[in-house]
């Protein structure tokens, strides 16, 4: 298994686990522990993003190496994951911002939505990893546009 994709997938899963722990902590009214855990989740997500972005810039992305007859389904799934991850990232930043600005009523409204989006992002991210590196042989590693759209 390739090091950087495995490492980045680890950090996205870790961030989702920390978000879940943070959710439990706030339900138990452990605010300080909730804050620390959610900051750790954000740092984990940022670590994922730095690894992913660095790999994309310096190495490129890996194309789907599985059967041609399911490549279109993988591509649609990948595009869905990218949209979900982008949405989750934006929601995460907004959620952190309102929390640090002490706009707790807004934070309480958006936090659960952000968490659910992030859980879905982590799950689909793991699926992309499994499809690219575990279930099928990896395709070629090349520029992002070629890996996603095939040109």
Structure description:
- The protein has 151 residues and is mainly α.
- It contains five helices and two strands; from the N terminus they run H-H-E-H-H-E-H.
- The chain has helices spanning 3-27, 31-58, 68-100, 104-134, 144-149; strands at 61-62, 141-142.
- Helix 1 (3-27) runs antiparallel to helix 2, helix 1 packs antiparallel against helix 4 (104-134) and helix 3 runs antiparallel to helix 4.
- The longest helix has 33 residues, at 68-100.
- It starts with a helix and ends with a helix.
- The relative contact order is 0.17.
- The model has no long low-confidence stretch (mean pLDDT 93).
Strand content: under 5%
Strand line-up in the sheet with most strands: 1-2
**Backbone shape:** elongated
Radius of gyration using CA atoms only: 17 Å
Number of helices: 5
> Quick one: biggest sheet?
2 strands, antiparallel
Unreliable sequence segments: none
Relevant terms:
151 residues; mainly alpha; 81% helix
Concise overview:
With 151 residues, this protein is mainly alpha-helical. The protein contains 5 helices and 2 strands. Helix 1 packs antiparallel against helix 2 and helix 1 runs antiparallel to helix 4.
Break the fold down into its secondary structure elements and pairings.
Blueprint: H1 3-27, H2 31-58, E1 61-62, H3 68-100, H4 104-134, E2 141-142, H5 144-149
Antiparallel strand pairs: 1-2
């Amino acid at each position: 298994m390739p090091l950087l994709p495995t490492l980045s997938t680890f950090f996205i899963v870790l961030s989702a686990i920390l978000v879940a722990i943070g959710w439990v902590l706030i339900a138990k009214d452990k605010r300080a522990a909730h804050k620390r855990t959610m900051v750790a989740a954000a740092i984990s997500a940022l670590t994922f993003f730095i690894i992913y972005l660095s790999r994309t810039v310096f190495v490129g992305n890996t194309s789907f190496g599985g059967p041609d007859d399911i490549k279109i389904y993988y591509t649609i799934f990948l595009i869905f994951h990218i949209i979900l991850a982008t949405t989750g990232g934006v929601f995460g930043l907004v959620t952190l911002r309102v929390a640090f600005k002490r706009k707790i009523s807004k934070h309480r409204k958006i936090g659960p939505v952000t968490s659910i989006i992030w859980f879905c992002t982590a799950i689909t991210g793991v699926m992309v990893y499994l499809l690219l590196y575990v279930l099928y042989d990896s395709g070629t590693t090349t520029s992002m546009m070629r890996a996603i759209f095939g040109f």
